[in-house]
Amino acid sequence: MSHLNWSKKIVLAAVVSLLAAGAVGVASAQETQWQENHSRREQVNKRLENQNKRIRKEVKEGEITPEQARKLHKQDRKIREEEKAMARKHGGHITKAEQKKLNRQENRVSKEIGQ
User: Fold this and answer.
1) Which of 94, 82, 85, 88 is nearest to 42 (CA)?
2) Residues 51-91: tens digit of each pLDDT
3) Arithmetic mean of pLDDT over the chain
4) C-alpha to C-alpha distance for 112 and 102, rounded to whole angstroms
5) Closest CA to 83 of 107, 106, 99
6) Nearest-CA neighbor of 52 among 30, 32, 69, 35?
7) Up-side HSE of residue 79: CA atoms within 13 Å toward CB?
8) Where are the alpha helices (DSSP H) in the chain?
9) Cβ atoms < 10 Å from Cβ of 94
10) What is the DSSP letter of 1?
11) 69 with 114: CB under 8 angstroms?
C-alpha cells in the first residue's frame, strides 16, 4: 500500500512540475512578445525588413544577381543575430548606443543594395 502511495506522489510531483514549467513558458512567451516590440528593436528590425524587400525587388528587376542577394541577406541576418544578442543582455531591449551601431551596419548594407 505504501508503495502505491509513493508512486502516486511521484506522478503527482511530475504533473505539478510540468504544469509549472508550462506556466513559466507562457509568461516568457508573453514577455518576449512585448520585448520584441521595444521601440529601438522595432526600428532596427523594420529597417532589416525593408532592406529584405528591397533586395528581393532588385533581384526581380535584374538589378542584382541572386548571388549578390544571398550575400546581402547574409549580412542582414548577421545584424539581426547581433541585435537579438544585444537584447538578451538587457532584458529584451537594446541601448541607444547599440541601436546606433546596428543602424551604421544597416547603412553599409543599404548602400550595397541596387548599386
Assistant:
1) 94
2) 999 999 999 999 999 999 999 999 999 999 999 999 999 89
3) 82
4) 16
5) 99
6) 69
7) 28
8) 2-36, 39-60, 66-89, 96-112
9) 25
10) -
11) no
